[in-house]
Amino acid sequence: MEQNELKHIGQAFGKDAKFRPIGAGHINDTYRSEDGRWILQRINTEIFKRPEEVMENIEAVTACLRKKLAEDGKDPSRGTLTVVPAEEGALLVKTESGVFRMYENIRNAHSVEPEERTLQEFEKAAAAFGRFQRALQAFPVKKLHETIPDFHHTVKRLARLKEVFSERLRDEKEAAAEQETAGSLSSEPEREERIQRLHQALPWIEYALSVEKIAPMVLDGLANGSIPLAVTHNDTKINNVLFDDDTNEAIAVIDLDTVMPGSRLYDFGDAVRSGAVTAAEDEPELSKVHFDPEAYLAFKRGYLSEMADALTAREKELLLPSAELMTYECGIRFLTDYLEGDPYFKTDYPEHNLVRARNQFRILQEMLKLPEDL
Ligand code: ADP
Ligand code: GN1
Ligand code: MG
Question: Which of 104, 121, 139 is the last residue of a domain?
Fold first, then answer.
């Protein structure tokens, strides 16, 4: 985005500063002011259709966390996000370039990308996610908006994959029929591109369908009450934890857009999915992509140090399976996005989402071979 435009938006929040892009997220755009005081974010409103509700959730949850941090003698401005309102108190600024919000920049702190984390950092992040869930145990979960409906509804994610798969098979049939009657190659290059993607994706679609019994595991538990509905973060990649620059302690869980009612297993599972692995999520060389059992055990240790007493028996049983579930779901999401022409995740090249999907499924294949009591 243009420097001038960013400056202008900063001013709408009462801050006169220069902003530079930071971060590696797939959804929003993040900028930090050059003076290191403010974070400006453009919210992706294709994905978050009701950004006001996102901000209401964030305000409610951070208020609860701030109170808890203060009770524990900790500094709330370092322990959670602080929203900076615009002039006249609005939490969002809308311009032709999009919808923006501002946070205080948590200074003297940094995030770590999954492929760079050490085992110690991973264990500390696990404890931070555990503390986050614990601090929000008494929060009235039903008050939260569902900022992305059915976000971790794996069964619906799978149904969508099947739907898109059928659409692509129809494309292929149509093209074949036209070729037969007209005797020439299709005159629809976009359809040809869709069909090509189908062919590339086919082995992984078949794989996803072959393990579909994984999908309802947590949903069933939520439905029968063996898994409680709780406040969940829903995007527990390690780069959503801030570490203190001096002590390297995990101080804050950030990126709260997807805080919603859900299962705590989604958070455990997604953190393992994204962090207990040996390569970047989009590593092009499949042979480098592995599940990392040692990292899994470090994460589990950190998480249980905060949450062991709070979890139900069923949740404890499903720790490793929840990682399988979230890996499966994420693979399905990347694969569906690839088949649809990448409307959701930011991509740098045409096969980007296919590479991501394939890596998830490879990790899942390894996870499914592990002993259940790991
Ligand atoms: P995305 O949804 O794109 O992942 P995040 O909210 O996670 O966006 O922000 C991206 C990165 O920006 C984070 O990983 C972190 O390094 C940095 N960041 C975001 N908010 C803050 C903040 N309030 N203070 C310090 N750093 C931040
Ligand atoms: C997205 O923006 P980022 O990278 O934190 C996505 C997560 C996926 C993740 C996969 C709102 O998160 O659900 O697990 O990409 N966030 C949303 O890398 O869809
Ligand atoms: Mg993030």
Answer: 104
Q: What percent of the chain has pLDDT over 90?
A: 93
Q: What is the pTM of this model?
A: 0.95
Q: What is the pLDDT of residues 179-207, one digit of tens each?
A: 888 766 666 889 999 999 999 999 999 99
DSSP 8-state secondary structure symbol assigned to residue 290: -
List the residue whose alpha carbon is closest to atom 17 of ligand 2. 27
Q: Which residues of 116-145 are buried (b: 16+ CB within 10 A; e: fewer)?
A: ebebebbbbbbbbbbbbbebbeebebeebb
Q: Which of 101, 78, 31 is nearest to 254 (CA)?
A: 78
Tokens matching residue 11: 């001013």
Tell me: the pLDDT tens digits for 11-42? 999 999 999 999 777 889 999 999 999 999 99
- Distance of CA 133 to CAs 70, 109, 161, 265, Å? 17, 21, 31, 11
**Ligand 1 pocket test: which of 111, 115, 234 has the largest number of ligand atoms within 8 Å of its C-beta?**
111
Domain CATH for 294: 3.90.1200.10
Given 69, 104, 139, the domain boundary residue is 104
- Choosing from 49, 53, 115, 235 the residue with most ligand 2 atoms within 8 A of its CB, the one to mutate for a pocket test is 235
Helix 293-307, helix 264-275: angle, nearest 10: 150
User: Helix crossing, 189-210 with 352-367: angle to 10°?
Assistant: 10
Nearest CA to ligand 1 atom 23: 105
- Torsion angle, alpha carbons of 150, 98, 112, 117, to 10: 40
Q: How far apart are the C-alpha atoms of 278 and 288, rounded to whole Å?
A: 7
Domain region containing 34: 1-104
In DSSP terms, which residues pair with 232 in a beta bridge? Answer: 260
Tokens of 322: 């929840």
Same domain for 179 and 48: no
Q: Are 282 and 355 in contact (CB under 8 A)?
A: yes
- Residue 251, ligand 1, Cβ within 6 A: no
Distance 239 CA to ligand 1 centre (A): 8
Tens-place pLDDT, residues 284-324: 999 999 999 999 999 999 999 999 999 999 999 999 999 99
